[in-house]
């Protein structure tokens, strides 16, 4: 084959080899500095391990590899000599990475706002021997509405999925630069058990964080129930499919039952794949819907940074079978990636902060010392629970995820000078925990009706009549009203016409049409919206979740004197 095709194959192989080399160095460093107690390394042991580790290794990678090596040692009695003893060979996807190709192998031309043309040179036979065995193929590609007209298209990746050619086409759009530090207003989001996402807005003023005292939440209980129904159906189909496979393995193709069992097993396999694809589609839609809602909240509040918990430091402890816990564990990674993608368009930075202790300590008076008590509800403080948080020191009583979101935004704004940016991925992380109390200050409200009337002058209260009113030579007639002398005044006018009939429409008497209007039906309620953002059905196309609407707030109250801690009951 030609050198251009060889470069594409080498690029795909080099990606796998670079990843394997990174893992190999990680395993070798952990084995060389194996501690006396793997679960509790000393300071000297951590320093020796960090000296041998490659760049970009997180604490989660070290913890997972340590568990993997410990399990291998317990099973075999010795440490692994290399990475190949711990892992199987990687599975190579059936795809062609065209990032290393040039114009003599492919050309990409945009033919419209929603279409492009990929011209690719492909072989005509399995083992091409000369240039005659190669030919140019034109692949028309339809672009989704999310690709803007001014986007620059990049070299795609071509793969085959279910008998159809799929094109993974990346594109680039110009975005503004979001600094890592220097932020004054930020939004913090917590991965909660009550809701999928709970956020608050915080403002940094004179070394402390002030919150407006209004949380916003994204509740995915409805879509969670739907996903659980799909999971149960998928597990049921998988069990039936395994049962048929065992029956087929016990008989020969010459058996009369083999054809029927084989057909049923194949149908169950197709249905199982369809359910898996549907679950993946729902998870993806949920992740992008939650991310779009979070970015809209931050943009409406005037925030320049979004703080979320570091997924590498999160580890499930107890309540592993919780509905929302399992749901959020599946879509958290997608939500973070979607938030980074959407926030870049609004020039909003996304930074991760340590998650340890965010739900444990009080955001009002804690600073790492005052421990919150978790209870089922505010009127059941003596019972053990997980939904509600109560502080015995200052009397704080609020939702547990709300308190965690306030501590997240406090850690982010106070520790933003310690933000680190990864050189390769550009992911921003704060590894240093800076604790601080959060005060609540009400935002400036619109003046009340009495205050607006007090500011009015005499001219505003008694305006001068217009020229046409001064020219009138007769008084304005009074509006007719019902009196005791005339209780059935038919000349009365009403300011509002009813939306529908108050009595059933009469039946048709002849060939004429029925009078317009619907008769009121008992038990029928007015339709209501369950969207989570402004015009949610038109903006996201996902209406299975309920969340706080996006509202544009005014500025915070002036002066630090108004930022006083209050008790929220």
Report on the architecture of this protein.
- It comes from Nonomuraea guangzhouensis.
- Keywords: DNA-binding.
- This is Zinc ribbon domain-containing protein.
- This protein is of the alpha+beta class and 569 residues long.
- It has three domains: 83 residues; 78 residues, no CATH class; 256 residues, no CATH class.
- The chain is built from eleven helices and 21 strands.
- The strands form five sheets. Strands 9, 10, 11, 12, 13, 14, 18, 19, 20 and 21 form a ten-stranded mixed beta sheet that branches. It has a three-stranded antiparallel beta sheet with strand order 1-6-7. A three-stranded antiparallel beta sheet has the order 2-3-4, with no helix packed on it.
- Helix 1 crosses helix 3 and helix 4 runs antiparallel to helix 5.
- The radius of gyration is 33 Å and the shape is globular.
Task: Map the helices and strands.
Elements: H1 3-32, H2 43-52, H3 59-76, E1 95-97, E2 106-112, E3 115-123, E4 134-142, E5 152-153, E6 157-161, E7 164-168, E8 171-172, E9 185-190, E10 197-205, E11 208-211, E12 216-219, H4 221-250, H5 258-300, E13 305-309, H6 323-345, E14 349-353, E15 373-375, E16 388-390, E17 397-399, H7 400-414, E18 419-421, E19 428-430, E20 438-440, H8 449-455, H9 458-461, H10 467-470, H11 536-539, E21 546-547
Helix pairs in contact: 1-3, 4-5, 5-6
């Amino acid at each position: 084959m030609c050198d251009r095709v060889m470069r594409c194959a080498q690029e795909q192989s080099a990606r796998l080899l670079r990843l394997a080399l990174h893992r190999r160095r990680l395993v070798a460093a952990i084995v060389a500095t194996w501690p006396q107690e793997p679960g509790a390394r000393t300071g000297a042991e951590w320093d020796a391990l960090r000296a041998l580790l490659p760049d970009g290794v997180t604490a989660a990678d070290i913890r997972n590899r340590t568990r993997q090596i410990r399990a291998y040692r317990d099973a075999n009695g010795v440490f692994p000599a290399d990475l190949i003893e711990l892992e199987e060979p990687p599975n190579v996807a059936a795809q062609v990475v065209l990032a290393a190709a040039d114009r003599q192998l492919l050309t990409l031309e945009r033919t419209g706002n929603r279409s492009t043309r990929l011209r690719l040179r492909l072989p005509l036979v399995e083992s091409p021997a000369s240039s005659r065995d190669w030919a140019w193929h034109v692949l028309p590609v339809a672009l989704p509405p999310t690709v803007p007209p001014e986007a620059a298209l990049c070299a795609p990746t071509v793969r085959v999925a279910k008998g159809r050619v799929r094109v993974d086409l990346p594109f680039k759009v110009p975005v503004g630069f979001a600094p890592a530090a220097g932020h004054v207003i930020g939004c913090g989001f917590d991965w909660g058990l009550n809701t999928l996402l709970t956020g608050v807005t915080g403002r940094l003023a004179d070394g402390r964080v002030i919150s407006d005292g209004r949380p916003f939440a994204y509740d995915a209980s409805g879509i969670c129930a739907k996903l659980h129904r799909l999971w149960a159906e998928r597990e049921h189909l998988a069990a039936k499919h395994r049962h048929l496979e065992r029956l087929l393995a016990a008989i020969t193709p010459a058996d009369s039952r083999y054809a029927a069992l084989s057909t049923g097993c194949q149908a169950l396999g197709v249905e199982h794949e369809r359910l898996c694809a549907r679950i993946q589609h729902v998870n993806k839609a949920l992740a992008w819907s939650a991310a779009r809602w979070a970015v809209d909240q931050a943009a409406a509040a005037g925030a320049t940074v979004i703080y979320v918990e570091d997924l590498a430091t999160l580890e499930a402890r107890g309540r592993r079978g919780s509905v929302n816990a399992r749901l959020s564990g599946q879509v958290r990674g997608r939500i973070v990636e979607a938030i980074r993608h959407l926030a870049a368009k609004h020039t909003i930075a996304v930074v991760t902060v340590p998650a340890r202790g965010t739900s444990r300590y009080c955001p009002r008076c804690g600073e790492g010392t005052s421990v919150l008590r978790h209870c089922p509800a505010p009127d059941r403080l003596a019972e053990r629970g997980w939904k509600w948080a109560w502080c015995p020191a200052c009397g704080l009583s609020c939702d547990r995820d709300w308190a965690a979101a306030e501590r997240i935004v406090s850690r982010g704004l106070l520790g933003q000078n310690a933000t680190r940016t990864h050189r390769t991925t550009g992911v921003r992380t704060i590894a240093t925990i800076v604790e601080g109390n959060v005060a609540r200050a009400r935002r400036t409200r619109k003046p009340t009706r009495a205050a607006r009337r007090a500011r009015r002058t005499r001219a505003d209260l008694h305006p001068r009549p217009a020229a046409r009113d001064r020219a009138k030579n007769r008084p304005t007639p009074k509006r007719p009203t019902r009196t005791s002398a005339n209780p059935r005044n038919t000349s009365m006018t009403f300011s509002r016409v009813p939306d529908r009939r108050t009595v059933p429409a009469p039946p048709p008497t002849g060939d004429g049409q029925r009078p317009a209007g619907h008769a009121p039906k008992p038990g029928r309620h007015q339709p209501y919206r369950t969207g989570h953002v402004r015009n949610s059905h038109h903006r996201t196309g996902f209406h299975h979740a309920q969340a706080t609407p996006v509202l544009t707030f005014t500025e915070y109250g002036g002066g630090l004197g108004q930022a006083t801690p209050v008790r929220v009951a």
